[in-house]
Amino acid sequence: MALDLAQIRAQFPALARPAIFLDNPGGTQVARASLERIQRYMIETNANHGGLFATSRASDATIDEARAAMADFLNAPRPEEIVYGPNMTSLTFRLSRALAREFEAGDVIVVTRLDHDANVSPWLRLAEDRNCRVRWVDFNPADGTLDQADFTAALQEKPRLVAFGYASNALGTVNPVEQMTRQAKQAGALVYIDAVQYAAHGPIDVQKIGCDFLVCSAYKFFGPHVGALYGRYELLDSLRAYRVRPAPSDPPGKFETGTGNFEGIAGTLGALEYFAWLGETFGADDPALSAQYSGRALTFKKAMLALQSYEAELSRATLSTLADLPGVQVYGLSDPAKVDQRVATISFTKAGVTPAQIAAHLDRHNIYVWNGNFYALGATTRLGLEGQGGLLRVGATHYNTLEEIERLGQALREL
After folding, report:
1. How many CB atoms lie within 10 A of CB 402?
2. Which long-range contacts does 12-19 make (Cβ < 8 Å, 24+ apart)?
3. Distance of CA 241 to the CA centre of its chain
4. What is the model's pLDDT at position 199?
5. Which domains does the chain carry?
6. Average of pLDDT values for 121-141?
7. N vs C: which end of the chain shows fewer Cβ within 10 Å?
8. Whole-angstrom Cα distance, residue 60 to residue 69?
């Protein structure tokens, strides 16, 4: 069933603003269901964890529900494999610190130049602390795809851990995560996947992927500033977490240090309830899909496939618009026939004008975009753009319209 954009946009109060939000890779607008969950939590169930009184019990029940919903969203085997935290970066540093206890001098850690630095620097610090060796995997500057031959070569060095992204937050490239995970596991490595940029754009199944850890952020999929990490239970259970002494000794609690952002986690549940509404309203029945999933997990997969199909149209429209503009160079996959290998996060430069100047020009047209390196320092450095202001990034999501992409093109033509 085709998406009804009017119905969808009505679910986002911020979209009443006379602006075009193409800054989504840095953070999406918040769904009404998420806002309502936050408000309800603060008014009806605001309490700390573990009390024997009504509001504390209700608060804990909400957090348990949010954990179960996230497990269904990622198709994790059990809710206890979901760890909530402030954001992906904090969670990754937290896990890297616990993993560091298990690493020895000379161990190899694989990272890529295509990744957000939050999936690079924690491992660089681990390597520095434990005297490990870092093996960088390159990407192809011509099309923004990870160099799979280099990745395979890196695995010959028998790494302890391999870290890579599901989708590039700078170039939009979707990596073949199942294939890469399978190769890494065959080499005996732990696999840590940054799915922050992908989670709003397509279905995720951690069991099918076979990864050990996968992390995402709710504020990139229509919720508040909260991070969520999936970890295989036996690994979470065996790792020694850095925690205060009275804190839980079992996962996930032992990794959720201090008092949690309970209202934010409630808002994350609301964002997931929005996805459930999307799947129930616009999801297509598919016998093959129904054979793999059931219940809420199936509804989530229907939602993500429905929006993924529409976002392919947005990607093709954006690439076509940019191709018609003189002096514009798109970085990453620019062939409209290959939109299934990217998300609708598209970055470019334009001759004679800096990314910052383009962003300021678009702001005067009430079009919001990002410029710079977006913390994908390895990518902009490899492309030779770090000293030149980086990239101009436009990122559509399923609440954007083809008309908005047309208005983007009109504003860019004025340059």
Report:
1. 15
2. 12/222, 12/399, 15/399, 18/366, 19/366, 19/367, 19/368
3. 24
4. 98
5. 5-30+296-413 (3.90.1150.10), 34-273 (3.40.640.10)
6. 98
7. N
8. 14
Q: What are phi and psi of 224, to 5 degrees?
A: -85, -175
**Is residue 47 helix, strand or coil?**
coil
The 10 Å Cβ neighbour count of residue 332 is 28
In angstroms, rounded to a whole number, what is the distance separating the alpha carbons of residues 266 and 60? Answer: 10
Q: Check whether the bond before 246 is cis (ω within 30° of 0).
A: no
Read off the pLDDT of residues 380-394 as tens digits, 9 standing for 90 and up: 999 999 999 999 999
Helices (H) and strands (E) in the chain, counts: 15, 15
Count of C-beta atoms within a 10 Å radius of residue 130: 18
**Pair of tokens at residue 215:** 């992390």
pTM listed for this prediction? 0.97
pLDDT at 365 exceeding the cut of 80: yes
Half-sphere exposure of residue 139, counting CA atoms within 13 Å on the CB side? 31
- pLDDT tens digit string along 6-42? 999 999 999 999 999 999 999 999 999 999 999 999 9
Q: What is the DSSP code (8-state) at residue 146? A: E
Both tokens assigned to 272? 């997931």
pLDDT at 1 over 90: no
Q: What is the pLDDT of residues 40-54, one digit of tens each?
A: 999 999 999 999 999
Torsion of CA 125, 23, 114, 89, to 10 degrees: 20
Residue 247 confidence (pLDDT) above 90: no
The per-residue pLDDT of the chain, averaged, comes to: 97
- The answer to whether 348 and 329 have CB atoms below 8 angstroms apart is yes
How far from the centroid of its chain's Cα atoms is residue 61's Cα?
Answer: 26
60 vs 225: CA distance, rounded Å: 19
